[in-house]
Amino acid sequence: MKWIEEFRDPALARSLLHQIERRVGSRPLKFMEVCGGHTHAIYRHGLEQLLPDVMDLVHGPGCPVCVIPMGRVDDAIAIARQSGVIFTSYGDMLAVPGSRGSLLSAKAEGADVRVVYSPLDALRIARNQPDRPVVFLAIGFETTAPATAIALLEARRLGLKNLSFFCNHVTIIPAVKAILDSPELSLDGFIGPGHVTTVIGLRPFEFIPQRYARPVVVAGFEPLDILQAILMLLEQREQGRCEVENQYGRVVRSEGNPRALEVMAETMELRPFFEWRGLGFINHSALRLRPEFADWDAEKLYSIPGVQVADPKACQCGEVLKGVLKPYQCKVFGTACKPETPIGTCMVSPEGACAAYYSYGRLGKLV
Amino acid sequence: MNEPLLERIERVRQAQRGKYYLNDTVVSMAHGSGGKSSQALIEGLVVPALHNPELARLEDCARLQAGGQRLVVTTDSYVIDPIFFPGGDIGSLAVHGTLNDLATSGAEPLGLTLAMILEEGFPLDSLRRILESAGEACRRAGVSIVTGDTKVVGRGKCDQIFLTTTGVGWIRVSHQLSMDSVQPGDRILISGPVGDHGVAIMGARGDMGLELDVLSDSAPVSSMARRLLEEIASVRCLKDPTRGGVATALNEIAQKSGCAIAVEEGQVPVRAEVRGACELLGLDPLYVANEGRLLAVVPEAFAQQALEILQADEAGREARIFATALAEPVGTVYLRTSLGGTRVLDMLAGAPLPRIC
Amino acid sequence: MCLAIPAKILELVPDCEDLARVEVSGVRRQIHVGLLSGEVGPGDWVLIHVGFALSKIDEAEARRTLDYLETLGQAYREELAALGEEHEVD
């Protein structure tokens, strides 16, 4: 696979690791990878074990499935259960537990829940079945919001009367800021989200070096990308620099994707506040459909419980999402909370730190 | 992360095996996926209800004794959608699947049965195509469908056609094939590229919008199995990895034998297109279904010979030695990545692909 | 879900300016390229995510990155070779 396999070259990885070893020094370092996709990539390739012991990779809140509170999952299930509804969703959300079951169990009990690869698939289903209401569960950070935006514009252009969107898009910057403001955590730098920046560009991250004196290197998702980004963070420290750098230049432009930002602005607006699982309520951190798109807004078309559901007492997802706890430090990790019986979203989302750790990385350096 | 925590996790895993999940009150798609849910259903509900030692062995084939002859019997149902797919159809799939269960038990097939459940309105032309395909698969394998059953249900009560095949065979060569007998040091071989069937089905179902040229690998593994057993006395066990992929089959071996299994990422054969489809959809080829691959575990000393036997067979040209059984960590399967790191390969949790076999 | 991977544009769909057929390793799919209107055509590589192209891959930049990593790799190999020679001398 072109432009993927070259960035998995084991020999080049070894030389990067060697450079990292040379520069890392003896003081313990904590770098946070913001994005769940990076967490997944790190564990998929077994990178964490290969890094020096003094370096700690802290897993951040950039998993859009993980941060959806249980109450919103219940809302999604409530919509799916409405008679006649075809409920479409990305696969990742199917097994996420609400307070009484998941979309998958709702499906087992008769709801018409379907996995799609793209919001355009939901559009296609709606066009092919004009007599059934179709709802699309829109989740994701800014990487995914433009797709929802285009699907929404297309729905309006076609005058589709039977498609609506349940919008749960969240924005990355407020979450990162919440981490930076958290007194429990001191980080030495950030591995920046390579796909969110593809859309929003580099500028939104400049406040991090400017106001918090922490370097950021935006990274791609292959092993060499992640390793090179870590090396660049170390080089910044060595050279006394503190700035936003772009390791993923082959994909990320510093201005992002202007057209993507346009369609998002045209269709969505910031909610005054939104509840994030584990992080509590954060201002201006999530998107909803603009009022002029009310006809396609599932939140307006369906009556949903809208109840705020507290996490189970045992759940420590919040602290894991903030990077305060490592997955295995959570009291219920691996015992009461496992991928097949998840208590919290960190364990059920494929990008969640706990799922990645349990399913992929639990052997650590033991083998 | 430390050993005491790993031990605690492992203890919980052991204790929870056989208990179906507290939240399960109805059958879900996950129960049919071949992974953890399926296992929980079988161990937690089916076995206790039917309670007998042979069933509890949970091997693909059951062993029966009759007048000094060692017989095996196996059964499978096929509910695949779509019923016609690149590389086969539900008819040939059913025959190959049951032949493979017999072959991996070391048995020579004596005969197959075929029970059909047909939906009212199902075209007879399609039925003919499917049965001719099944017949052709039998003919090539030198076996016959000797009896069967036909039922029809009303429109909507079953999805076009469901098949159940039973195979009876006899153990000709005296082997004690069993997953329990796998030992540290043993090498594990796969007869060809993984994930072809699952990806072909995904392509044929069309709901992910992928266009691909991958064919299902549905085929008998009998000739490879037969030769391995004839020429190597100490084959530990054979498996044909189906739902849940190679990773799930390796987990069954690890659980039964208590060994760890280390897979070399670089040695797993995968077609470029399968890799591409999996990368696009976020799937791991090691968890994607196969229908014509043979997994063989042999002592280290015979690994090279086993490889040559497989590669000499038309179906085994791309065979590889790709994994090793180890003493620790007990019952755990992991991958050594091409970068030299590791990642655990647990049994499949959940159901990524509905009804692929 | 947050998967985004590079794919090559095979052709723009005729009569449908925002759609293109792309290929990853022999697997083909129709993708919406409206977010990169006018910038991309057959032969270009794009990053695709949930059915959309988000960015055109700058192949020159990709090669520059790989070349840089290759020089690090070369330096490492030379270091190892030098170490090897030292050990031989000892």
Characterization of this structure:
The complex is a heterotrimer of chains A (367), B (357) and C (90). A five-stranded parallel sheet of chain A has the order 2-1-7-8-9. Chain A has 367 residues and is of the alpha/beta class. Chain A is 37% helix and 17% strand. The mean pLDDT of chain A is 92. The radius of gyration of chain A is 21 Å and the shape is globular. Chain A contains 15 helices and 13 strands. The two termini of chain A are 29 Å apart. Chain B has 357 residues and is α+β, with helices and mostly antiparallel strands. Chain B folds into two domains: 138 residues, PurM-like, N-terminal domain (60s Ribosomal Protein L30, Chain: A), CATH 3.30.1330; 166 residues, Alpha-Beta Complex (Phosphoribosyl-aminoimidazole Synthetase, Chain A, domain 2), CATH 3.90.650.10. Chain B is globular, with a radius of gyration of 20 Å. A seven-stranded mixed sheet of chain B has the order 10-12-8-13-11-14-15, with helices on both faces. A five-stranded mixed sheet of chain B has the order 1-2-7-5-6, with helices on one face. Chain C is an alpha+beta fold. Chain C starts with a strand and ends with a helix. Classes of the chains: A alpha/beta (367), B alpha+beta (357), C alpha+beta (90). Chains in contact: A-B, A-C, B-C. At the A-B interface, helix 1, helix 4 and helix 15 of A face helix 1, helix 2, helix 9, strand 14 and strand 15 of B. Strand 9 of chain B pairs antiparallel with strand 3 of chain C, so a sheet runs across the interface.
Q: Keywords for this structure?
A:
heterotrimer; A: 367 residues; alpha/beta; Rossmann fold; 4-stranded parallel beta sheet; 17% strand; globular; C: 90 residues; alpha+beta; SH3 type barrels; 2 domains; 5 strands; 34% helix
